[in-house]
Amino acid sequence: MVDRFLVWLGTGVVMAGVSAAVLAGSGVAMATDGASDDGGDKSTSESSDSTGAKDNSGANNSSPTGPEGNDVDKKDDDPADAKKDAGDGDKGASTAEDAKGDDATDEKTGESDNGDEVTGEDVIEEDVTGTDEEPGEFVDLTQGEHNNTGSRTNDVQANYAENLRQDPPVVDGVDDLGPAANLEGENADTKLAVVNNDPEPVQEQRVVALTTVFDEQPEEPEFSAVAFAAPLAAPVSATATAPLLNVLLDVVGTIIFGIYNFAIQLFGGPPMLPPGSTVTVLSSRLRLDCGCAPGSGETVPVDWYIPKDPEPDRIIYLQHGFLAAGPWYSYTAATLAEQTKSIVVAPSITSNFLKYDQCWLGGAPMHQAMAGLFKEGNRALSDSALAAGYAGAIPDRVVLMGHSAGGSAVSGIARYMTENRSIDRLAGVVLLDGVGMNGKMAEDLAKVPDEIPIYQLAAPKYMWNMFGSGTTALMQARPDAEFYGVTLAGGSHVDTMRGGNFLIQFSQQLVAGFSRPQNVAAAQILMVGWVNDMFDPDGPRQGIYLDRGETFALDTPAGQATLVDLPNSLRRPYLLNFLEPFMAGSAGLFNLQPGCLREPTGTAAGCTSSVAA
């Protein structure tokens, strides 16, 4: 709006200056040759012509410019032409051409030839008298014969040259004149537009030249009609053009989560393996093509857990939860890699839900980018593994596993794998007390074909799993499923979140509730059994599957754990459980920014606005 205001303000100033310059030029011209039979050099705006001013476009006109006084007619309509006429009018007032009856405002130098423009607005707004052709049509002035002056005449000029008179034009409406016609001469190109009025004896036809360009050229110059518009601005990012509130949220989130990420990297440290593990852990970075703009995306830290098996043919994508990081799950990842003979890839994604592009753990654009990792032709995983030091092939079959908000993330990945046609690579989805933070989890899971198993390993309902929102989403997406998963009786939200950093382990359990050793061991048994069955559905069953409402006692090396089939009414006492009534409306907190999804058929160009998913 500010740019447009400045453009119109400048236009008003230029028009005022042009009006003053033209009036001064007209006075000089009238004084030097005011007695001419064909009207002399009288040049006024269109409103002045309506009072009876004569035109000098007759057949006896000897000016090389063709009909005189035509450019001035446009000064009140086109700001671009007005600026040009003002400058040329000042020059023309002091030349010898004034004495010969030439119009000073029509003169152009070779230097201004390239800048001569006719806008679409010029043609629409001009009300001028025309010929006996249909309204809105042009008279082809190139069909006439050359006179001795370099201009051309046509039948309209021959028929009415002797008694031209200008009366107020009678036009019912504004016509679309179409492309401007060219009046060709040795030294001039003239764009003409005419509008027809009813041909009555008292009417007068007049040919008005909208733009005249002079130049001594051996060849006929060319025109290009250009729309009058503000200068093009340099390309800007989506954030720079976003509403102020969105920009402020993005800046605040960048600062806050930047400090937080630095702190968890400082205190969390690298991934650690459990004692006696045969797994090799490597670290590198992973490219994720998140966002709509061509070339948009980011690289994130990623840990690779390679089993001792020389040629693993399975891969598990393990996604951490909100405010967590990949190394916090190093013990869990190593156990999965060793006991399922799978490569485990664990990227660390920002939890900055205030990012304008929604490229965060819970954002739909990020889920779409994660799903793109498994699309045919995407080499991001293999390039990352190679950079980490693993030169083997990346397996075709994958199990998606996500803890807490990571459960919502892998649900979104499964959904977009369906859309990008890589769903045949998906063996199954395991939710580790998965949480639907923004109300989209059920919609995402509903997109996954029913033959692909999806199981939830849950803790009792309490504040940290948003009172079982992930289980509710799974049941909504698959109301007829025979098995949804199990709840660990007396379990904690962090039973499956095992790593080697004592400080991190103690802190998370202090916040979310301490885990029972038997539940930690039971969680590992359940995860490993389900994954092996997903990769080998026709082999011997290793997982534990309960009937509806069943309770099962599982013996583990750490003691006996109790499993209860989902759904159930188990709850865990917690100090902040009184917040349950407010949890239902918390989804809006994670949808503050718009984000942008790529079109399913492309990878860069088109995009549709989106919210977190």
TrEMBL record:
Cleaved signal peptide residues: 1-31
Compositionally skewed regions (Basic and acidic residues) per UniProt: 71-111
Annotated keywords: Signal
Compositionally biased intervals (Polar residues): 45-65, 144-154
Acidic residues biased stretches: 113-137
InterPro entries, per database record: AB_hydrolase_fold
Region: Disordered, residue numbers: 32-154
Full protein name: Esterase/lipase
Organism for this UniProt entry: Mycolicibacterium rhodesiae (strain NBB3) (Mycobacterium rhodesiae)
